[in-house]
## 1
Amino acid sequence: MAVSTDIVAMYRGPAPVWRRLLSRAQSEPRALAYLMGACVIMFVAQWPAIARRVWETDPARFNTEGGAFQQAVQPEIGGALLGAVIFLPLIFYVLALVLSLLSRVAGKRVAAFDGRLILFWSLLAATPLALLNGLVAGFVGPGIGLTIVGALWFGVVLWFVGTGVREAHREAGVTA
C-alpha cells in the first residue's frame, strides 16, 4: 500500500498495518526512508514557529520588502535543518536501540531491525499531528492549545510504538 494510505489506516487501527509492515522483508533503506521522511516533515513543521519567533524578537526585521525577513529567518531555518535532518536521526537510532533493549527486558522479543522500523514508522505516521503542532506553535503560540496538541502527538506516537511492539512480539512468537 502507499505510505499515505498506511498512515491513514494507522489512525483507524494500527495492528493490521503493523502486521503488514512487519511481515515484509527487512529493508534498512526503507526504514531509513521512513525516518528521514519523518524528520523532514518535522523540520517543515517548525517553519511557522520560527517565523513567529523572528517576528516576536525583532518586528522591524519582518519587512518582507527587500528580503529582510528572509535574511532574518535563514539562520533559524538553517539551525532547524541541521537539528532535524542531521542530529535527530542519530538520536532516533539510539532511541530505537533503547526500545529494543527495553522490550527484551520486559519479556517481549523484538529484533533490533523491528525496533527501528517500529519507532521510525510511528514517527512518520504521527507527522500529521506534528504539522498541526507546528501550525499551533506558529499561529497561536505558547499556551494550553500547544500543550494539548503536543501531548496528543506524543500520545499517538506512544500508541503506535506500543502496538508495534505488541505485534512484533506476536510475530516473533509465531515464527520462533
## 2
Amino acid sequence: MRQAVNEAWENPEKENAVADLWEEIIPGVYSAQFFDLDRLAEFRKYLEATVNSEIPRRAPYGIQLNRYGVMLDPRSEGHLAAPNFQAFYNDIMDRYMRPIARLLLGTYGYDNQTFGFSIQYNPDKDKDLHAHTDASAATLNININLPDEEFTGSQVDFHDKYTRRVVQTTFEPGKAIIHRGNVPHATHPITSGQRNNLVVWLYGDRMQIPRGGASSYGSIDSSTSKVVTVDNITARERWSLSDGPKDTVAPF
C-alpha cells in the first residue's frame, strides 16, 4: 500500500495500482490491509504511552458513548493533541484517505474537512452498535489490534440499499474498510477479547456530504479497474492536497 500510494503521488496515472489493492465488498465498500503489523506494534506502544501519561482526553459519543475511545481531531474538545500523533493523523487523512476515497468513492468536493476518533469494543461495555449511517462522505475504519489480541464476534454487517443484500465482514489486525458514509452498517456483539479501531471521516465545508444516493458518487468499473466519476475529475485532481481552510464544525 505504501509503495503504491507513494508512486501515485509521484505519477497519478499509476493510481490503478492503489485501486487494485482494495477488494470491493459491496458497491461503496472496500477493504484492504492498511497497516504493516510491525509498525502497528510501534504505534500501539505509542498510544499506550499517551494513555499512561494521563493526557486529558474525552471519550467519543454520538451514535452512542464509547467509554474507552478517544477523540482524535482538533475540532473536538478533549482530543488527543500530542504533536507526533497529530502529524500521523494528518498524514493518514491527507496522503492516504483523501485520494483513496476520491479514487474508489468519488468524494472529490466533499472531503476537505476531517473528523476522527478511536473505539474499543469489549463484552462488558460498548459491545455492539446498531445499524446506522455516518455523517460523512467517506469513512475509513482501521483495526489496530495486534496479531495476538484475538476476539470473537464483533462482525460488521454492510447493507446494500439497492439489492437489499447484507454482507458480513470481520476485522483482522491492520485491516481497513473504507466506505461511503451513506451505506448502512452495524456491529454484532463482541463475545470475547477486545477490538480496537481508528475511525476517520471526510466531509465538506459545514459538514456537507453528497446527496441523492449512489449517483452523487464516482465508482470503479470492475471490468476495467478504471475510475468512473460523474464530474470527470482527473487523476491529478484526485492526488492533490485540500487547499481549503479547516473549519471548526465537529459532528459530535
